[in-house]
Specification:
The structure holds two protein chains of two kinds. Chain A is an alpha/beta fold. Chain A is built from 16 helices and 13 strands. Chain A has two domains: 170 residues, Periplasmic binding protein-like II (D-Maltodextrin-Binding Protein, domain 2, 3-Layer(aba) Sandwich), CATH 3.40.190.10; 208 residues, Periplasmic binding protein-like II (D-Maltodextrin-Binding Protein, domain 2). Helices cover 40% and strands 15% of the residues of chain A. In chain A, the strands form three sheets. In chain A, strands 6, 7, 8, 9, 10, 11 and 13 form a seven-stranded mixed sheet that branches. In chain A, strands 2-1-3-12 form a four-stranded mixed sheet. In chain A, helix 15 runs antiparallel to helix 16. Chain A is globular and about 75 Å long. About 2% of the residues of chain A have low confidence. Chain B is an all-alpha fold. Chain B folds into two domains: 34 residues; 209 residues, Orthogonal Bundle (MetI-like fold). Chain B has a two-stranded antiparallel sheet with strand order 1-2. In chain B, helix 3 runs parallel beside helix 7 and helix 10 runs antiparallel to helix 13. The longest helix of chain B is centred in the N-terminal third of the chain and has 42 residues. The chains are: A alpha/beta, B mainly alpha.
Amino acid sequence: MKHKKFLALLLSVLMLATCSVTAFAAGNDVVEITYSYWGTPDEAASVQAVADKFNSENDHIHVTVLAIPNEEYTTTLNSMAAGNQLPDCGIMNENGVLDFAADGLLADVSSMYDGAASMPLDSITFKADGAPVAYSAANEILFLYYNKDMFDAAGVAYPDPVTPYTWDEFVETAKLLTLDGNGNNAASPDFDANNVVQYGANVDNWTWQLEVWALSNGGRWFSEDGAECLINTPEVAESIQKVADLYLVDHVAQFRDGLEDSGIQSTIAAGNVAMATGGTWNVGTCMNNVEFPYGVAPLPVMKNEVTICTGGPQVVFAQGEHQAEAMEFIKWYTKEENSWDSLIATGIWMPILEEYYTNEELTHKWVDNDNFTMGYDNFKTSVVDYAHDYAVSTCWYYVPHTNEFLAYLRSILGDVWTGSTTAADALNAGEATLIDIFNGE
Amino acid sequence: MPKKTKHRNALLRSENRTAYLCLIPSIIGLIFLTYLPLLEVFGLSFFSWKGNGFDTFQFVGMKNYVKLLTTDPYFKESVAVTVYYTFIAVVGSMIYSLIIALLLNRKIPARGFWRAIFYLPYLLPAVAVYLGWNWLYNINYGLFNFIINRVFGWPRVGFVNDAKLVAPSLALVAVWLSGNLIVIFLAGLQNVPRTYLEAAEVDGATSWQRFWNITIPCMSPIIFYNLLMALITNLQVITPALALTKGGPGNSSRFVSYVLYQYAFENRKFGLAAAVAVMMFILIGVFTVILFATSRSWMFSEGGDD
């Protein structure tokens, strides 16, 4: 009996406590929002530190960072969307942005830069029917990294920081830098292609990056207005074949299956490749750990000088109740000063506002630091100016269904990399399906 | 009715009640976590849904199934690839695990140690296993290619990068992973009546004759069970595609489960993914029925046809 009384008392106390906590919470007007981010728990901790800065400056919004591993990011967001459980805001993979927007999963961002002095670069603005639906949080372009030690050892001049190689010059240089076990380079008649110990070049064949070679070779995957799929043309086929031939014919590149984003970690950063194409993010994510001096240069040119730019956007998802608060956080977060130390000064992100590319004082502020080991002049001419003058939007800024499109393109190009078929034959065989996917069927 | 029987009936009824009571949690679990989702998947396969709110379902009838069987760029090839992979993996792992079980059933030194060694791969986390095998298979820096190319000077072999070799290469990993089959075979081998074997030995039967005419028939129910389990598990294969090959090169390791995953979680085409799931269910069902139907002619059952 005594026990029962005690239990009843305990339950009443607990109930009272719960009620008062709930009442307290209800009286407190802090809105809880979640921000999703791709990356490791360490990266999430640094993003949470940025969010905490926002939290300390705001008494009515509290942001919690939800870290999702990079490789599962798209699939996790898709599952969350299906369960009506999307976070309030977050960063997004570029290839899903227009589809999310078309399916009503993104909130309107038209007020994001209201009253701002400088607008984000037009090339990194996601547009549906010409209207902006999201802005990239960073600007990332593709360019050429090279290992200076390997050039010195071969007695070959470094790539020019302003004038790019023609494709043929690039292949010839790569041959001089490709060495077999006996020390012969790929231009030598004694070269043994079966026993290569150092490769001259690696052009990343991770599918989305191939678009730059189509543009370079005078072709396009899609018309400029995004209304037409033009992928099956001789220019596009030739551009892909040239990349494949670096391994198949010229023997200057490692085999790459193009199936996943293994980046330059396994090529130039691993110390067995002299030149490799890569994105700006590599400056801060892997080239900061290499032990050899490296330089950067514009991409080689097939016909036109061009690079492509990209960057995941910060978005507000349309399923949450607190879209206004989420927008307030995103507006705060996308200000350069708030991601400066962890992302921009480290070289992982390039700023999105045009003034950093046109006002040299700001460029100095951004690039003049120890993380840019190739030196201010090299980075300024070969990346900053190059990005400003030659970068065009990757297709996912203006074409929907690119996730599915790239997945199918990746599947039909598998046999091109191994040499079992040609790029022209693969595109001929896959064209109808690619167009179906482009049309959303 | 005699009093005793009445009492027994009451007891039975009460026992039944208890049994049903105890079964309630699992029945609820089965209904809500298995059968209802199964029905939902079946229902969903007749809709188009992009996962954007519950008011956006669009009834499309048989369209998803028609697409899979006609214009879909992945499905038909994925069925062929899955069946091919399953065939190699099932046959390989049955032969491998039976041979290993026979060896481990002999009186060899440190038998417990060897049994643990062969069972160990089965306990390792699947993704770690495939990443480990990637270091063996990798065309640029893998151990196998180091031996082939650097030691012997032969051209590199593409293992998981070669459309023709990828399914056998992945099936080899599945064979290596089949430690659970070994354990079940071992248990079965220990139940083969020693008297039959001894009698046959006295009659002058060779070890092959004893194996073929006594061990195998006595083991046939175990072989059937292992075959069924290996068949179902391998037809559902997805881990190597997720962890290692992303379905490539081309579509040569794009298994049916991977196509399902791709449509549902990468492309948000949940209706189409549900149709793939239903087709996969049918595929596994057909193979299971074939296996059951043929088992009557080769499975030896001591207890008769109950």
